[in-house]
Amino acid sequence: MTTTTAPLADAPPDPAPVPAALKRAARRRRSVPYLLLLAGVAWLLVFFVAPMVYQASTSVQTGSLDTGFKVTWHFATYWNALTEYWPHFVRSLVYSGIATVLCLAIGYPLAYTIAFRAGRWRNLLLILVIAPFFTSFLIRTLAWETILADQSPVVSFLNRVHLLDVTTWLGVTEGHRVMATPLAVVCGLTYNFLPFMILPLYTSLERVDGRLHEAAGDLYATPFTTFRKVTFPLSMPGVVAGTLLTFIPASGDYINAELLGSTNQKMIGNVIQSQFLRVLDYPTAAALSFILMAVILAIVTLYIRKAGTEELV
Amino acid sequence: MRPIRWLRKNLVVIAGVLALAYLILPNVVVLVFSFNKPKGRFNYTWDHFSTDAWQHPCGVADMCGSLTLSLKIAVYATIGATILGTLTAFALARYRFRGRAATNMLIFLPMAMPEVVMGASLGTLFLNMRIQFGFWTILIAHIMFCLSFVVTAVKARVMSMDPRLEQAAQDLYATPLQTFLRITLPLAAPGIAAGALLSFALSFDDYIITSFNAGNTVTFPMFVWGSAQRGTPVQVNVIGTAMFAIAVVLVLAGQLAGSRRKAKA
């Protein structure tokens, strides 16, 4: 689409238009996209980009709330933040990485079912995937506290079949409880971001032509081969979008670690939040979130380049 | 060997249903525990059935006030983000201009940024500008993070529209305004509606960014967060269940209206 689709009525009514008027009309037409953009882009520049830049400067400031903060190019803040909180960074990336893989493993069959096997139940299933969104995610995360409580049916069952002994041996639970363990936090993260995985997967699976499956079958491909060679490659854009939409928010999340974990499961989000809102150490909070942002952007860029999808941007 | 073959054929569906159960389970718990009458302050273990909370949904101090505030912010944020986002989306979908790629990047970045980072950085800015935290700072933040989602939804819709329909309208002597109001806008409406709906849901539910920009103002998610430390009242489950039910009914009604319109056409 080009600018030539601009309304004809913009042209002057004069049958022999003077070049000056034409030029003015052309200039006006060229300024149209900028006028449309103005408010939205200004909003993002002032309230998204400027804070990021400002935060970069805050991270090299020193001072206190009483005496005020000054830019002193105090890069040691970064060094101190990293040496003190690197376990939280690693934990965040590991937890959100595992949660992303689990989301893909759990979400793919559901997206596949909705796209190919649901028939007239398709819309109902889609609504059921989206509807939990409308109950505040904090309330739903609190519900997990009930589900995973020590005496709950789920945990009693897991104890009876000795599954918790296995997970304890693996080091993701402790004793006979699930609450306040890595398992609970990863379970909460997986749950919270699962719809963000399912919806893009569904969108790309829905576009896959069902006749391709038949063709693969006609060529003696087993159902599994059909999936591996036809369906899965065609759903790659959904896989890439879904994993990004899951991994990015999960890595910065602190709600699940706070509500379902103990002090041993704190993620980097918890640290940033408490540095900002409780300790009031703004330079450290700024440095930590700057590092987090850089790490995420690096991972996302590498991943997109590797997966080769630029449809996102 | 029959059952095994059946199992193999339907393995995907079984896994899908289990995944759906995982998604719905917390909502079922929220529903069930909205009828609980807990013994202590914590509504985690079942005691006995009661409809008290449903009869007095506002029986908890400050809860309904925070709910009204959240609804108000969500409505304003939706209106703001939808207007700004729709204009931006039209510019990006309809025109080629210098800076288009940069603008696309600018729209994409907020969606690729952890909320903690956005919340903390905006909070730092407000703090240093000595801007009073409260209603307006929350609203500004919400419009900021909803904007990109509106742009993405509307842009996708406008890009898939047939430009010949608008050309046809102009050929039939429609003025630019008429063309826009009677052809372009109705065609783009589903995208705009999707963006607005998403904005409302995102704004209403946001906790992380809000917590950095709210000061002493308490929105509904912040109320829930605060109450989680000292025992969540049963009424929170009532609100959660009611929101779930309203959303499902609205979506079903929308679908019904849509299919009826399609049947008529």
UniProtKB/TrEMBL annotation, chain A:
InterPro entries per the UniProt record, alphabetical: MetI-like, MetI-like_sf
Domain ABC transmembrane type-1 per the UniProt entry, residue ranges: 89-303
Ranges that cross the membrane: 32-54, 93-112, 124-143, 179-202, 230-250, 285-304
Highest taxon above the source species: Bacteria
Compartment(s) of residence: Cell membrane
Keyword terms, alphabetized: Cell membrane, Membrane, Transmembrane, Transmembrane helix, Transport
Protein topology in the membrane: Multi-pass membrane protein
Family that this chain belongs to: Belongs to the binding-protein-dependent transport system permease family. CysTW subfamily.
Protein name per UniProt: ABC transporter permease
Automatic annotation (TrEMBL), chain B:
PROSITE patterns assigned: ABC_TM1 (PS50928)
Keyword Membrane listed: yes
Membrane spanning residue stretches: 12-35, 73-93, 105-127, 133-154, 183-204, 234-254
Subcellular compartments: Cell membrane
Membrane-topology descriptor: Multi-pass membrane protein
Sequence ranges assigned to domain ABC transmembrane type-1 in this UniProt record: 67-254
Keywords tagged on the record: Cell membrane, Membrane, Transmembrane, Transmembrane helix, Transport
Pfam families recorded: BPD_transp_1 (PF00528)
Gene3D superfamilies according to UniProt: MetI-like (1.10.3720.10)
UniProt similarity note: Belongs to the binding-protein-dependent transport system permease family. CysTW subfamily.
Protein name (record): ABC transporter permease
Source species of the chain: Actinacidiphila acidipaludis
Organism taxonomic ancestry: Bacteria, Bacillati, Actinomycetota, Actinomycetes, Kitasatosporales
